Amino acid sequence: xxxxxxxxSKKKMSTETPEIPTPKMKKFVRLLxxxxxxxxxxxxxxxxxxxxxxxxxxxxxxxxxxxxxxxEDRWAExxxxxxxxxxxxxxFYWEAHDEWDRLWKASGPDTEVGKxxxxxxxxxxxxxxxxxxxxHGVRRHAASAGEVFADVAAESDRDQFCGLDFTLLQFAADxxxxxxxxxxxxxxxxxxxxxxxxxxxxxxLM
Length: 206
Prior knowledge:
Layout: H1 79-90, H2 93-107, H3 112-131, H4 135-156, E1 160-161, E2 164-165, H5 166-178
């Protein structure tokens, strides 16, 4: 696993549009290996039990408490942030959205970190919409995520935030909005539907 590298291209005439580099696919890594994964992923409207409200839910009577605010300089210590990344990369989009939404509220929606988390929440929402077979919802949330990441990148004047590269995040949001998705996915089965992973660098020692 390495840092994102720009692809080299031959010199072109000045009248041509420069080639936009495509980030390399990263290798999957569980960030919180000791954390137990839900036995299914919730897909609203599909018949899966609501995780908290339904007695059959995977987290019934286990609603988590509000997490500590996320800090950009100590993101590797945030269990809520890291488990959200694990959920997202494994295709538990509702659970990732739920985790990051709580962290967003705890961190302050109008803070720099809060705005960054809003982008992740939107990206997870796009994953939920894939499972709900709502292509309009996928494109709307993915496009919104891309706009949020672009704004945070400009405001923070950083290439990376909480371990994630803005180039990758904006590429991810753009790809999510453009792809076509299958509509025969097994209900409740976690499945990664996007051709990218959100792996922070450096990897946290947990």
